[in-house]
Amino acid sequence: xxxxxxxxxxxxxxxxxxxxxxxxxxxxxxxxxxxxxxxxxxxxxxxxxxxxxxxxxxxxxxxxxxxxxxxxxxxxxxxxxxxxxxxxxxxxxxxxxxxxxxxxxxxxxxxxxxxxxxxxxxxxxxxxxxxxxxxxxxxxxxxxxxxxxxxxxxxxxxxxxxxxxxxxxxxxxxxxxxxxxxxxxxxxxxxxxxxxxxxxxxxxxxxxxxxxxxxxxxxxxxxxxxxxxxxxxxxxxxxxxxxxxxxxxxxxxxxxxxxxxxxxxxxxxxxxxxxxxxxxxxxxxxxxxxxxxxxxxxxxxxxxxxxxxxxxxxxxxxxxxxxxxxxxxxxxxxxxxxxxxxxxxxxxxxxxxxxxxxxxxxxxxxxxxxxxxxxxxxxxxxxxxxxxxxxxxxxxx
Length: 397
Known about the structure:
By secondary structure, the protein is of the alpha/beta class. The protein folds into two domains: about 180 residues, Lyase, Ornithine Decarboxylase, Chain A, domain 1; about 220 residues, TIM Barrel (Alpha-Beta Barrel), CATH 3.20.20. Helix content is about 30%, strand content about 20%. It contains eleven helices and 18 strands. The strands form two sheets. Strands 1, 2, 11, 12, 13, 14, 15, 16, 17 and 18 form a ten-stranded mixed beta sheet that branches. It has an eight-stranded parallel beta sheet with strand order 3-10-9-8-7-6-5-4. β6, α6 and β7 form a beta-alpha-beta unit. The mean pLDDT is about 95.
């Protein structure tokens, strides 16, 4: 019953945009703050939509990146076939924001989680959940039967990543047979996400590795069909391989996430035509202020571990979008200096005081950075016009 309490708390969270009566200049936003360039976001969504459409594929964007019903709605309105969520709690948060259909991409294996899925299925039409074990399938079937709901499932395939999924083809067939015997479960296809390939540096190497994994997954799909199992959904891939996986015949939709924001980690992998992956615009940044300068050649910012994800290294500093050049910031190096602070080491020749100056940080990893904030400060033409709640922030169960 612990998840019931958590579900009730999620129902009380804000999910609707907060529109400002009067747009405010970007330089008035209290820092640190998560900024979202609405124009760049819209162009990224449109660019991905058009690319996949040209290849006969659909988008099933992953909300673990943005955790925001407003952004999910923009993606659905652009033609997405559904929205992915990593966890059951993210599903509940987006459900309360009016988002459907949802695909829960992480398997569940306990009765309590299965009960939470069944309750969500009763409320949210078209819910699908990934399974990778007999235990998980049994728990979902029992919970769905108790709540009188039918539940669509996809088998999660392990692309030699070792995180979740079924690795061996024979085990996939065994699980499919078990699902076929269980009441209230309907097998609709497979999920295949090679997350360890997304950040392989160099397009040619990334393409070769992704296609090798898809070759094995396609063979599994063929084996399932030969046994009479439906494979209507073959969902997977991501931002790093969006222009690779769309060439795979078996794929129906791509679980792209970071393309809407982009981050330094993705920029570094290289694109089809160059050393920088710049197919999509940078729409996300963290506004920060220089608050102290205890030593020459460096300045302390008001953004540390609590304001910026650090798992993928340091962010990149840049001049604020509101204008005003900041000498030396392009070549400056950021280092974390604790929970609340970061230090920007300036290049030689740019050691003048910067106290009170505003900067923007280009995140190294967008997903966990977003999870640190309650809302986006949404801006266009240098002025903030709305705040969009990050409704699923902290939804990790």
